[in-house]
Amino acid sequence: MVAAGTVAGFAGPAAAAPTCRIAILPPYFNGFQVETDAFFVCSDPDNPNDGMPATVVLDQLVGGTWHVVATGYGEAVYTCRSNTPRSYKAAMLPSKVTTFPCA
Known about the structure:
With 103 residues, the chain is an all-beta fold.
């Protein structure tokens, strides 16, 4: 899934600008942690930014308010303290809310 964000580099005035976008994975649950990942995907696979990690923020919904529970470069990981169901989203991917037994 590709989300917002574009980085452009220019090889010269006559060259087209190769683009990179930030790919953000929706939060997923591995049984004891909730994680989301973000990385650059470039139109030119030889672009040195292709596959590089990007800043990502993981939010948890508590009492009707979103709270940042983890941040990272490439991945944001929250370790569960109980199995109370909570909803999670990547801050840059607000339409993908998922609920896991993890609080």
